[in-house]
Write a structure and sequence with these properties.
Elements lengths: L11 H16 L6 H8 L5 H6 L2 H21 L8 H15 L1 H7 L10 H19 L3 H4 L3 H21 L9 H11 L7
Helix pairs in contact: 1-2, 1-6, 4-5, 4-6, 4-7, 5-6, 5-9, 5-10, 7-9
Length: 193
């Protein structure tokens, strides 16, 4: 009788996350299947469920990682950078273009475990980073409600990134982050009352 095949994987969690990101990038979120990811990682079909419980758990882990990466990217913009909010928007665009699968999953709350504490903490870190860019504006440029200014800045960066990823923007000679900076300078969000 042949010995049963044993599965050993150095970092199964990372392998499944990486495989899932590849699937999202190539085929979209709907194509995610824990069974298929197990096959790709060459482990038993139950192994991914051990780490993520279900598809929503896997997608929650991807979204959490995405918000952590986004917060880290935004945090690299120094507080004394001129045009800090504009630069944070450009970093947001760069993040979306560098991590399109994360970006795709992060903003699909109906697919996630919304009350996951790690997800909530990562979202909060990213939100705080963006809000810090607004808080650094002179009081007169923040408008009466800095939350609304932050929402306007986020909407501009997010919309630009989503349009760029979908191929809906006209072909530009500029680097997308540079094009965003020019757009921001032409229509500064921070001047909206």
């Amino acid at each position: 009788m042949a010995a049963p095949r044993t599965y050993h994987h150095g970092d199964l969690r990372r392998a499944v996350l990486s495989a899932a990101l590849e699937v999202v990038q190539s085929d979209g979120v709907a194509a995610i299947s824990l069974r298929d990811l197990a096959r790709r990682a060459e482990v038993s079909h139950a192994a991914p469920a051990h780490h993520f419980k279900d598809k929503a758990g896997l997608l929650t882990a991807i979204a959490t990682e995405g918000f952590e990466l986004l917060a880290a990217s935004l945090a690299t913009v120094s507080a004394d950078t001129a045009g800090r909010l504009r630069e944070m928007g450009a970093r947001y665009v760069e993040f979306a273009l560098d991590h399109p699968a994360h970006f795709e999953v992060m903003f699909r709350p109906q697919l996630l475990h919304g009350h996951d504490p790690e997800l909530a903490a990562a979202k909060e870190r990213a939100s705080r980073a963006l809000h810090s860019g607004v808080e650094d504006l002179p009081a007169g440029r923040r408008g009466p409600d800095s939350r609304r200014t932050a929402l306007a800045a986020w909407s501009l960066a997010h919309g630009f990134a989503a349009l760029q990823l979908s191929g809906s923007l006209p072909v530009m000679d500029d680097d997308p982050a540079e094009a965003f900076r020019a757009l921001f300078d032409d229509h500064p969000v921070a001047e909206v009352p």
